[in-house]
Amino acid sequence: MSENKDLTVTEDLKPILEVLKQEDAKAIVELKEELTDNWLKKQIFRTETEMRISVLNDGKHPTAASKYWQSVREMSAMFDALMGLSFDLRRNEIKRLKLERKMQKAIQSGDELKQREIQISLDENLYGKASMEQVAHDRVRELKTVSYTPLTLPTNREV
Hints:
Blueprint: H1 14-17, H2 22-30, H3 32-41, H4 48-54, H5 64-109, H6 112-146
Helix pairs in contact: 5-6
């Protein structure tokens, strides 16, 4: 899908370090490993426990049938969001290709300010893609977690 699929904080510190004061940039460099660890393991959506307590709890859904249908609704909403994100990722890729073409033209014309401006847009595009990929990954985790397959499926009378 991408040549730089797993963007981590450490691979792209340059853009942020360039705009920070020296003392702040030093702090970011010192936090580099922790920031990378945070990027790689952050969870975006609910944990399984949070889902079961806040979404599929016995108070709101006391029967297997009500849990089943709530899981169906949850899964549908999550999948719809994942599909929407797939469109955003595809548009992001097209935007990156267009920016790369613009960069080539700016390089050919020798316009250094235009090159810097486009590079900012490329950096932003890459970070946006990495963030969307994280969201997509966590959406899939969430879909697997809310799957109603492990639940006791209701009989036709209960549904």
